[in-house]
C-alpha cells in the first residue's frame, strides 16, 4: 500500500510539473505574440505622423486651372481687373501651382524638374517625382484644391472626356450651377464697379449657363485664348500664302506688259519698211 501511494504521489508530482511547464510555454508564446503584434503596429504607423495625406487630384486641378487660364483670364486681363483675395479662382488657391510652375518641358519626351533638374520621359513621371520628393512644397490647407471647383469649370471637357450617353443628372447640374454662381458672386461682386459687373455677367454666360440639361447650352460660348491665337495663326498663314501669289501675279503682269510693248514696236517697224520710198 505504501509503495502504491508513493507511486501515485510521484505521478501527481510529474503531472503538476508538466502542466506548469506547459503554462509557462503558453505564456511566453502569448508574450511573443503580443510584442510581435505591437511591432507590426509600429511598422504600419506613418513615419511622418505630422504629414497630412493629400486628397486632391493633381490632374483635375490642372484641368481646372487650364479652364481658368484659357477661358477667363484673357477677359479679366482685358478689363485690367484684379481678382479679390477671397476669390478661389486665384492661382494662390492651387496647392500644386508652385510645382506646376517648376516644370520644364524641353521636348515631347523630355520633362525636367525645376527644383533638382532631374529628367523624365513623360509628365506623369514628373508628377510622381513631385509627389515623392517635393511633397513638402505643397500647401495642403483647407480650400486650396482646385479640383473642388471642377463641377463649375467643366473640367471633364478640358480633359477631353467623352460625354456620357446616360440622361442628364438634373440634381448634379443644379449643384454645379449654384457653385458656379457662388464663384461669380465672390470673384466679381457687382457692387465693385463696372469692370466687376461686366465680368460677373460674362462669367455667368461663359461658365454657368451650360450647367443645365438643355442640350442647346454649351460652355465657353465667348471663346478663349486659344481661339484668338488660332485666328492670328490662320491670318498669318493666309498672308504667307497670298503674299507670294500677289507678287507672282504682279511679275507675270509686268512681263506680259513688256512683251506687248515689244510686239507693238516690232509691228511698227515692219509697217514702216513696207511703205514705198
Automatic annotation (TrEMBL):
Keywords: Membrane, Signal, Transmembrane, Transmembrane helix. It comes from the Eukaryota. PROSITE patterns: ZINC_FINGER_C2H2_1 (PS00028). Residues 113-134 form the C2H2-type domain. Residues 1-19 form the signal peptide. InterPro entries: Znf_C2H2_type. This is C2H2-type domain-containing protein.
Amino acid at each position: 500500500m505504501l509503495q502504491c501511494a508513493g507511486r501515485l504521489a510521484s505521478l501527481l508530482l510529474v503531472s503538476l510539473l508538466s502542466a506548469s511547464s506547459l503554462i509557462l510555454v503558453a505564456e511566453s508564446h502569448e508574450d511573443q505574440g503580443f510584442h510581435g503584434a505591437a511591432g507590426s503596429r509600429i511598422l504600419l504607423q506613418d513615419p511622418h505622423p505630422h504629414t497630412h495625406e493629400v486628397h486632391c487630384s493633381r490632374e483635375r486641378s490642372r484641368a481646372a486651372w487650364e479652364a481658368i487660364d484659357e477661358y477667363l483670364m484673357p477677359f479679366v486681363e482685358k478689363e485690367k481687373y484684379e481678382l479679390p483675395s477671397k476669390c478661389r479662382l486665384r492661382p494662390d488657391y492651387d496647392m500644386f501651382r508652385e510645382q506646376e510652375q517648376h516644370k520644364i518641358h524641353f521636348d515631347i519626351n523630355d520633362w525636367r524638374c525645376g527644383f533638382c533638374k532631374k529628367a523624365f520621359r513623360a509628365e506623369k513621371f514628373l508628377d510622381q517625382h513631385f509627389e515623392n520628393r517635393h511633397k513638402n512644397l505643397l500647401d495642403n490647407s483647407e480650400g486650396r484644391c482646385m479640383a473642388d471647383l471642377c463641377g463649375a469649370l467643366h473640367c471633364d471637357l478640358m480633359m477631353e472626356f467623352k460625354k456620357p450617353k446616360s440622361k442628364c443628372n438634373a440634381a448634379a447640374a443644379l449643384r454645379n450651377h449654384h457653385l458656379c454662381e457662388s464663384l461669380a458672386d465672390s470673384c466679381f461682386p457687382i457692387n465693385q464697379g463696372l469692370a466687376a459687373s461686366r465680368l460677373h455677367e460674362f462669367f455667368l454666360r461663359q461658365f454657368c449657363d451650360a450647367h443645365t440639361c438643355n442640350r442647346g447650352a454649351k460652355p465657353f460660348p465667348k471663346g478663349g485664348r486659344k481661339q484668338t491665337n488660332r485666328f492670328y495663326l490662320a491670318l498669318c498663314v493666309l498672308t504667307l500664302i497670298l503674299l507670294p501669289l500677289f507678287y507672282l501675279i504682279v511679275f507675270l503682269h509686268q512681263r506680259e506688259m513688256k512683251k506687248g510693248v515689244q510686239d507693238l514696236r516690232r509691228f511698227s517697224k515692219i509697217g514702216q519698211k513696207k511703205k514705198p520710198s
